[in-house]
């Protein structure tokens, strides 16, 4: 057995393993990013956002001489745990590696910061013979300040370059990471007192989950005056069995004392009827029924597959700018100032 694999069961994995056992004891579904392997559209613009720069500085300080996670260089991470989330998705838990040649893992008590809403680039070899590598962005699902590990839920796409390779990984295998790259920043107090709605489809839930997780934490810590008044997650999936990260999301809702409300939309009839599960699609009529009206000045984040984006808000432009608001939200009277497309 190689040294790197022998370390997997060592003392350094304790905190990460505890987080993993709490969150991976179920078979739910997946979340990674709604890009369907089209990573180029997520490449950051020149320069770093304030939050990304702060996270980079913190990750460098916390990592000592070795950068734990950097936007400027690739760092090495080892797979510690993996389990099935659905028939097409797996959950992955990685820890940073201090020396890739020796497989020495950095202590998991070393925090890593990934601000919401941010992605991390993953790089792995996809062809042993040619040493070809592939790079794709994914949104970590661990808390903003993790215990030194990063977790992802990644769906395998047929014909994808990297996701099939990631699904072949076993504990002890190595990938490289770079980031975090901020996709949207909600500044402190920016939406204080407003309703914030997150409309997610499929794997588009992961950046939304990052934000929800952080806002619920801040509210619990007594930061209510600078936070949105209420969070509503509208989450669309093909079936109830494919509701992504359902246990994680509902645990947050239960701990939020009503601050986070959840509405599910499923194409297939639900297994068990429930007041917050709607059979159908995210249509204009549905959104009119569940969303706060434009007159209440809500803020709406939308993240999902192309078809859903087209129907709900209209797509982003080819150069990844917001583009014109259209779709159901425009028809219902929401303005571009109300909506942000992830």
From TrEMBL:
Single annotated GO MF: cytochrome-b5 reductase activity, acting on NADH
For activity, the cofactor(s) needed are: FAD
Record keywords: Oxidoreductase included? yes
User: Could you tell me which residue ranges the FAD-binding FR-type domain spans?
Assistant: 72-187
KW Magnesium (keyword) present: no
What are the record keywords, sorted? FAD, Flavoprotein, Oxidoreductase
Per UniProt, the enzyme's principal EC class comes to oxidoreductase
What CDD domains would the database entry show?
cyt_b5_reduct_like (cd06183)
Q: Where does FAD bind?
A: 136-138, 153, 161, 163, 206
Q: State the EC number(s).
A: 1.6.2.2
Supply the SUPFAM superfamilies for this chain.
Ferredoxin reductase-like, C-terminal NADP-linked domain, Riboflavin synthase domain-like
Instruction: State the name under which the record lists this protein.
Output: cytochrome-b5 reductase
A Pfam family cross-referenced in the UniProt record is NAD_binding_1
The signal peptide here is none
State the InterPro entries in the record: CBR-like, Cbr1-like_FAD-bd_dom, FAD-bd_FR_type, FNR_nucleotide-bd, OxRdtase_FAD/NAD-bd, Riboflavin_synthase-like_b-brl
């Amino acid at each position: 057995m190689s040294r790197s694999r022998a370390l997997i069961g060592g003392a350094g994995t304790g905190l990460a393993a505890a987080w993993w056992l709490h969150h991976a004891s179920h078979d739910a579904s997946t979340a990674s990013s709604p890009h369907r392997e089209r990573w180029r559209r997520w490449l950051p613009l020149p320069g770093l956002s304030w939050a990304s720069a702060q996270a980079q500085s913190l990750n460098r300080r916390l990592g000592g001489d070795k950068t734990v996670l950097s936007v400027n260089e690739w760092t090495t991470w080892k797979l510690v745990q993996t389990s099935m989330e659905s028939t097409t998705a797996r959950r992955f838990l990685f820890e940073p590696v201090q020396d890739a040649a020796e497989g020495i893992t950095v202590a998991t008590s070393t925090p890593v910061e990934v601000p919401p809403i941010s992605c991390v680039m993953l790089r792995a070899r996809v062809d042993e013979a040619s040493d070809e590598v592939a790079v794709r962005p994914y949104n970590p699902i661990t808390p903003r300040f993790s215990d030194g590990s990063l977790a992802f839920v990644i769906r395998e796409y047929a014909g994808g370059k990297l996701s099939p390779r990631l699904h072949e990984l076993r504990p002890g295998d190595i990938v490289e990471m770079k980031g975090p790259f901020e996709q949207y920043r909600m500044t402190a107090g920016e939406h204080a007192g407003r309703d914030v709605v997150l409309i997610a489809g499929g794997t588009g839930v992961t950046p939304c989950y990052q934000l929800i997780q952080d806002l619920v934490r801040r509210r619990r810590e007594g930061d209510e005056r600078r936070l949105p008044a209420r969070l509503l997650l509208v989450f669309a999936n093909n079936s109830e069995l494919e509701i992504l990260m359902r246990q994680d999301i509902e645990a947050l809702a239960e701990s939020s004392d009503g601050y986070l409300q959840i509405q599910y939309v499923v194409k297939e009839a639900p297994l068990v009827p429930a007041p917050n599960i709607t059979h159908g699609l995210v249509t204009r009529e549905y959104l009119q029924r569940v969303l706060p009206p434009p007159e209440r000045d809500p803020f709406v984040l939308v993240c999902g597959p192309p078809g859903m984006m087209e129907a709900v808000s209209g797509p982003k432009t080819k150069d990844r700018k917001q583009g014109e608001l259209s779709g159901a939200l425009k028809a219902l009277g929401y303005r571009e100032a109300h909506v942000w497309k992830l």
